[in-house]
Amino acid sequence: MGIEEIVKNANGFSDFNPMQQKALKKDLFNKSIVVSSPTASGKTILAELSALNSILNNRKKVVYTCPLRALASEHFNDFKKKYSASLQIRAAISIGDFDSSSSYLKNYDIIYSTYEKLESLIRHRADWLQGIGVLIVDEIHSLGTDRGSTLEMVITKLRFFNKNLQVLGLSATIPNSKEIASWLNADLVESDFRPVKLVEGVFLEGTIDFGKRKEKIESKSDDIEALAADTLARGKQALIFANTRKRSEGIAKRLASLTSRQLTESEKKELEKASEKALNVLEQPTEQCRSIAALIKNGVCFHNAGLMQKQREVIEELFKKNHLKFISSTTTLAAGINLPAYRVVIPSPYRYSGFGMEKLPVSEFKQMCGRAGRPAFDSEGEAILIAKTDFEKDDYFDYFINGKIENIDSRLGIESNLRFHLLAAISSGFIFDLDSAEKFFSATFYAKQFGNLSELFRKITTILQELEEMGFVHSSEKRIDVTPIGRRVVELYLDPVSAYEITEGLRKNKFNDLSYLFLISNTSEFYPLLSVSRSRQAELWERLQQEKHLLPINVELEMFSDYNLLSKYHTSLMLKDWIGEVSEQNLVDSFNVQPGILHAKMQRADWLAYAAFELAKLLELKEHLPRLNKMRKRLKSGIKEELIYLCEVRGIGRVRARKLFNAGIKSIAELKKVDLLDLQRLLPPKVALNVKKQIT
Ligand SMILES: Nc1ncnc2c1ncn2[C@@H]1O[C@H](COP(=O)(O)OP(=O)(O)OP(=O)(O)O)[C@@H](O)[C@H]1O
Ligand SMILES: [Mg+2]
């Protein structure tokens, strides 16, 4: 059976769609291709075709890369289910741990990974990368986003290694796809085919205007509710995009009484079960957990970065089963995924930036709309903006619906990006003098777009000097070399400036917990920082003054040059409360940091503490090593030092460990001694049993 038949059978398709046929005609199997086509047009199938051809016919490995872990997982699971067993294809996913070459990956045929993890694999010289046949870049329009420079580097480097590398770039509809294709020496497949018709319209005063037709719906005092009720009446589901986390929660709450009336008995039962699951992801539920659980029971929920990963999964699953009728989400659900939303509703296409409210980019708007009407679930779809006035309605039509999608522009010229990637390119040997630098950067998308590199080289000269002053490179007339510490900075995936600040900080004398925590909050990796409300500023400044001797920076100097100083201090205080065992709910109340955000921040903090440990080791700053080691464990579990050992037992987190400790069980030895029945008085019976099993 040929590859095309295999893919059709595995997916149960009778035929390829016009976009896919176009790509097949363009020699998808032998050439680099860039596809620019609408959402839901079936680009993933092209990835499957190309991957299988490379693995089965050419015996070459494939790497699939995309911007989101969740997206990588979805595609990985899907691919595995369809092809792994039947064709004996070994598929792996690699999305974590940035300081590892993950050498086991060489045993796999297809590796799913995020842009960042792939860059980190290159930095660790994963040599199997040199022999891959196809690089599949999903959402290649990400070149123009904040993470774009990393993607640009990944592509440039892999093509540098391997002149015959085939690239399959999958992009949303963008105006300059030709430019991207030309950069990659690829054929361009452009298509406006969307298997499911998607109409975009604006809702105002009870009427949805789709341009060609208008639809009146039953009005209610609240626009979102009116659209939701109408969706339910058609037996459909909707995704509502809110522009803040708070609003996403508010919208779900507003819709709860509407959905709860529509649930069948069996739906209620399912929702009840799932609600329990979502409630108990932490040892001690926060108000947000309770709110999520209550909403789920009512057949609606919100979805944003403040939720724990498990809760998000529960919610997505319930929506797919049509048990939840609506999800109100921030952009966490805006790209790439397949959900059964007949409607997408966008109540306000604005977003906060540092300077007030601004319009969403048109491209992002189109991505959101594209979540509606997915072929696996619906035969049509609607995306609806809500306007308040006629003026706004006209503006939405002009700007968003009929507006021009933005060009994708290289982000490599931004100084911080350039610094980060220049050091890495020197460390990996792509660059060793100015000629090689020119050769390397000539192969970038930046060079394609700007034609000449003079502006870039002006910046590079300054950056090289900085890197030399920081001790990360060593350059002479003839050569540019990385220093051992510079090389480690690259492997640790650190911004050189952060690494420098960390090493300088570690050299200071006075160090306590706060000093380490500030060291972490003071890095660009830890952005965004927690904001400080105006009412707390005076008090915080005062406290900062009192503790300034503990901060591993020159506070007098930074007070005038670093306008983030107070937020950094505030953020370190949050970390300090976390390792002081302040409850998650209290952290929400005093720092406005939701469990999901807290969790993500702690993963970051752990990585930065690890990086600080590694740098201290290299610099022989030995006194920091045991302390940083403990700090990592404390950050991971949110505990005081005395609970470290108890928390190493699976099933015991900060709350349970504290309970045991207070009951006099302070060590593993004591945990071993106590009998099961007594332990079950302190811990949930099942947990107690598992704990006993682990330690005996
Ligand atoms: N030839 C086909 N026949 C029937 N269904 C198809 C065909 N090709 C793809 N599909 C279905 O279309 C849906 C959308 O496909 P996919 O997720 O690949 O879209 P996409 O182009 O990647 O969209 P996005 O830009 O939103 O990521 C999937 O459910 C897929 O199974
Ligand atoms: Mg896709």
Number of strands: 19
In order across it, which strands form the biggest sheet? 10-9-8-17-14-11-13-12
CATH topology of the largest domain: Rossmann fold
Bound small-molecule species = adenosine-5'-triphosphate, magnesium ion
Structural description of this entry:
GO terms for molecular function: 3'-5' DNA helicase activity; ATP binding; DNA binding; hydrolase activity, acting on acid anhydrides, in phosphorus-containing anhydrides. This protein has 696 residues and is of the alpha/beta class. Helix content is 51%, strand content 12%. The chain folds into five domains: 3-190, P-loop containing nucleotide triphosphate hydrolases (Rossmann fold, 3-Layer(aba) Sandwich); 197-401, P-loop containing nucleotide triphosphate hydrolases (Rossmann fold), CATH 3.40.50; 415-491, Arc Repressor Mutant, subunit A, CATH 1.10.10.10; 496-638, Sec63 N-terminal domain-like fold (Orthogonal Bundle), CATH 1.10.3380; 647-695, Orthogonal Bundle (DNA polymerase, domain 1), CATH 1.10.150. The protein has an eight-stranded mixed sheet with strand order 10-9-8-17-14-11-13-12, sandwiched between helices. Strands 3-4-2-5-6-1-7 form a seven-stranded parallel sheet, sandwiched between helices. The protein starts with a helix and ends with a helix. Bound molecules: adenosine-5'-triphosphate and magnesium ion.
